[in-house]
Design a protein that fits this description.
single chain; FAD/NAD(P)-binding domain; seven-stranded mixed sheet; five-stranded parallel sheet
C-alpha cells in the first residue's frame, strides 16, 4: 500500500500528535485547521502515563516535563474540608514507566506544533464536505478549495464534520453539569490533584507549576445556560462561598474575563468509526466527559495505534478496520466509566451526598489502584 498523503481534519492535540507520528513513520500527511491561526484555548489538562509514554516516543516528553507539573497524589474531598480518599500514584507510575503531569493545554499544543515542519499545518481551512471515489478521498473547504489524498482522518472534535459525513448529524449527550475553568497565579500543594464534592457541584485544584493553579468548577445546570464573562467570578463566588480548601480565594484571584465555561457532554459509544478510506480519532470517534482526565490521552493513544496499523497493513480499509477494533473496547469503557462518575457527582439530596461520601471512604485503596491501573497503565506501543 502506498499512501500518497493522509489528510487530517483538525489541528488540536489529537490531530497534531497523529501528524507527528505519521511523519516519524515516513507517511506523508497534512493537517487542515479551520481556525485562522494555530492556537489552543482552554486551561489545564491531565496527561497520564498512558499518554506520556506516547509523547516520549514521539520526542515531546522533554517539553512536557519542562512545562508541566508532576502528579503524585490524588485526593477526593468533601466541601467541608474532609479528605475522603487519598491515592498515592507513585507505585502506579513506577509500574507504568512514566509519570503523570498537569500541563496547560496551549503549552502541550505548542510543543506538538513545534515538532512539525513549516507548512504541515494549514490554517483557515474549514472542512465542509468529504467524498471518496476510486481515485482516493477529497476534502472540500469553505473557501471553495479542496485537497486530495489517500485517506482522511477526522480529528475535528465532538461536533466532527467527518463523523457527520460518515454516520449523519447528531446532537451530543448533555451530562447535566456545566463547567467553568481557569488558571490563576497561586501556589498549590505540590503534586496533589484534589477534587472536592458537594451537593450537585464539585471543584478541582491542580498545580500547573510552583506558582500556577489550574482549577475547574462543575455544577448542575440546565443545558446551554451560559453566564456572561463579566458575571462569572461573582456567580462562582456565590455558588462556592462556604467551601474550604481555599476555593473562594482561588476564584477571587482569577480575573472574571479569563474564566471559561462549557457544558459537559459526550456521545454514546459507537462500534464503527471507519468507512472505506475515512476514519475518526479522539473526540470525533469517542468523545468523553472529562471526569477521568482521559479525553486527550485517548486521542494521543489513537494517533500512535492508527499510525502503526497503517504501517503494518497493505490495504487502507483493512488498516482502518483493524485500528477501530483495537480501540473500541477500551475507549467505550472509559466513556461509560466517566459518565457514571459524573452522574454520582450530580447528587444533590443531603442523604445522597452523605451516602456518596460513605461509599468513597469505604472503597479500599487496592480497588482504586486497580481501576487506575487499567486506565493509566495502558501502553499504546511504538510505531513498529
Amino acid at each position: 500500500m502506498k499512501i500518497e498523503e493522509v489528510l487530517i481534519v483538525g489541528g488540536g492535540i489529537g490531530g497534531l500528535t497523529l501528524a507527528l507520528a505519521l511523519r516519524r513513520a515516513n507517511i506523508p500527511c497534512a493537517v487542515f485547521e479551520r481556525a485562522p491561526e494555530l492556537k489552543e484555548v482552554g486551561a489545564g489538562i491531565g496527561v497520564w502515563t498512558n499518554a506520556v509514554k506516547v509523547l516520549d516516543r514521539l520526542g515531546v516528553g522533554a517539553r512536557l516535563r519542562e512545562t508541566g507539573a508532576p502528579v503524585h497524589i490524588g485526593e477526593m474531598c468533601s466541601a467541608k474540608g474532609q479528605v475522603l480518599s487519598r491515592t498515592n500514584l507513585d507505585q502506579l507510575v513506577r509500574e507504568a514507566g512514566a509519570a503523570c503531569y498537569v500541563v496547560h493545554r496551549a503549552e502541550l499544543h505548542a510543543a506538538l506544533a513545534e515538532q512539525l515542519p513549516e507548512g504541515a499545518i494549514k490554517t483557515n481551512h474549514e472542512c465542509v464536505a468529504v467524498e471518496e471515489d476510486e481515485a482516493g478521498v477529497t476534502i472540500h473547504f469553505a473557501d471553495g478549495t479542496s485537497a486530495k489524498g489517500t485517506l482522511v482522518v477526522g480529528a475535528d472534535g465532538i461536533n466532527s464534520i467527518v463523523r457527520a459525513h460518515l454516520w449523519g448529524p447528531s446532537k451530543p449527550r448533555y451530562a447535566g453539569q456545566t463547567c467553568f475553568r481557569g488558571v490563576v497565579k497561586m501556589k498549590a500543594d505540590d503534586g496533589v490533584v484534589r477534587e472536592i464534592h458537594g451537593a450537585g457541584r464539585r471543584f478541582g485544584i491542580c498545580p500547573l507549576s510552583r506558582d500556577r493553579i489550574y482549577w475547574y468548577a462543575a455544577l448542575n445546570a440546565p443545558e446551554g445556560k451560559m453566564v456572561d464573562f463579566d458575571e462569572r467570578q461573582r456567580f462562582l463566588l456565590e455558588e462556592f462561598k462556604d467551601w474550604t480548601w481555599q476555593v473562594p480565594k482561588i476564584i477571587a484571584a482569577t480575573p472574571t474575563e479569563t474564566i471559561l465555561q462549557n457544558d459537559l457532554v459526550d456521545r454514546v459509544p459507537i462500534t464503527r468509526w471507519s468507512k472505506g478510506a475515512i476514519t475518526l480519532l479522539g473526540d470525533a470517534a469517542h468523545p468523553t466527559t472529562p471526569n477521568l482526565g482521559q479525553g486527550a490521552c485517548l486521542a494521543i493513544e489513537d494517533a500512535m495505534i492508527l499510525t502503526r496499523h497503517l504501517v503494518e497493513y497493505t490495504n487502507v480499509a483493512e488498516a482502518l478496520q483493524s485500528y477501530e477494533r483495537a480501540r473500541g473496547k477500551r475507549t467505550a469503557a472509559i466513556v461509560k466509566q466517566s459518565w457514571t462518575f459524573g452522574a454520582l457527582a450530580r447528587w444533590e439530596n443531603p442523604f445522597a451526598v452523605h451516602l456518596r461520601e460513605l461509599l468513597v471512604r469505604a472503597t479500599p485503596q487496592f480497588l482504586v489502584q486497580q481501576t487506575m491501573r487499567k486506565q493509566i497503565g495502558f501502553d499504546a506501543g511504538n510505531l513498529s
